[in-house]
Amino acid sequence: PFSNCPRCGSKEFVGEDRVFDTWMDSSCSNLYLTKYRSDAKFSEDNFPVSLRPQGREIVRTWLYYTTLKSWLVRRSKPFHRVFIHGLGLDARGRAMHRTQGNVIDPWPLIKKHGADAIRIFVASETNPGDDFRISEAKVGGAGKFVTKLWNVARFISSFEEPKAGKLAPADEWILAELNRLIETARGSYEDLNLFLPSNRCREFLWNLFAPHYMEMVKARAYEGDTGARWTLHACLRDLLRLLAPIAPFSTDKIWRAMYGGSVHAEAFPMPHDGIPGSRADFTDKIVAFNADVWKRKRDGGVPLNVELPGVAVPTDLKAFEGDLRRMHRLGS
Q1: Are 282 and 172 within one domain?
Q2: Are residues 150 and 69 in the same domain?
Q3: 171-184 pLDDT tens trace
Q4: Closest C-alpha to 116, from 258, 265, 263, 214
Q5: Torsion region of 261: left, alpha or beta (phi above 0 gives left; psi -120 to 50 gives alpha)
Q6: pTM of the entire structure?
Q7: Which range of residues forms the domain containing residue 158?
């Protein structure tokens, strides 16, 4: 700022009254990022950009202005795809405005629950384009999932990762479920859908992998069984890579500590070859059997680590009998 014109010395100034709105500037974002008029080769190699993520409330402004400006300047579309996301609303379903006094400050939530918890909550709450109500209770629930991931990783880190292992039926079972998860997540990410990967990964870890598979193979893993140990690490590796776009901080921290390098430099997982898909058909029966044994022990006041006689493994689960008996300490 200055009080005198550096050229003529005048002190009389008139403010500019030919003012564009803010979208005239922000509509240059894709041109700026691809170094338009500053690096011709970089601009040519990277324009149009791959993706524009934005809210639906500014389609008529930011999206339209950017499309128009890119056409006028480059005679080209500005990006290949646009991801239109919904709005975060308050607990009553209202859009947040400063004048209404209902703006939720994210920083206290980040400090209390972590950034990954908020990201998982948003990804898990709605399908693409839908509005969602911000709930601290649900953010806290997502934070518990992050804690669960850390605890699972801590347990698996206690076992050395073998290069290969002879797989038992229980190992093939969880890998068949993992293959289903990978296929679902890959297809959903291609469609820019974060809802399915976040929820399916959560269900896999919380409802299958941790309570059922890990408990089934814990004894074998402690004994040095290579099939159990290899499968534990294989599942964790793939789960971390599948969750990396949604929970980038926790997954990268765990990956760096256990496997070296960054998870964000890794390729997305592919389904594991040679795993019979039919193994996943046993999931409901395995879950039901385990739930029944846990209920029997709970109803009888028997601790989980105490032998329970008189329980037979169903005939259709005979392939898993060894792991199931050791898991539940079933007597003869």
Answers
A1: yes
A2: no
A3: 999 999 999 999 99
A4: 263
A5: left
A6: 0.86
A7: 136-296
Helical (H) or strand (E) element with 125: helix 115-125
- Residue 315 counted as domain residue: no
- The size of the chain, in residues, is 332
- 143: amino acid identity, one letter: G
One-letter amino acid identity for 45? D
Regarding whether 162 and 78 lie in a shared domain, the answer is no
Q: Which 3-state string (H, E, C) describes 123-144?
A: HHHCCCCCCEECCHHHHHHHHH
Give per-residue pLDDT as tens, 187-236: 999 999 999 999 999 999 999 999 999 999 999 999 999 999 999 999 99
Please calculate the CA angle 282-287-292 and round it to the nearest 5 degrees: 125
Domain-embedded: residue 98? no
Name the CA radius of gyration of the chain, rounded: 27
- Say if 3 falls within a structural domain: no
Domain co-membership, 148 together with 269: yes
Q: What is the C-alpha to C-alpha distance for residues 302 and 297, in angstroms, rounded to an integer?
A: 5
Residue 239 exposed, middle or buried by CB count within 10 Å (0-12, 13-18, 19+): buried
Q: Identify whether residues 169 and 242 lie together within a single domain.
A: yes
pLDDT digits over 244-264, tens only? 999 999 999 999 999 999 999
Contact 280, 183 (CB under 8 A): no
DSSP string, 72-84: HHHSS-SEEEEEE
CB-facing half-sphere around the CA of 232: CA atoms within 13 A = 31
**Is 96 domain-assigned?**
no
Q: Is residue 95 helix, strand or coil?
A: strand
Report the domain count for the chain: 2
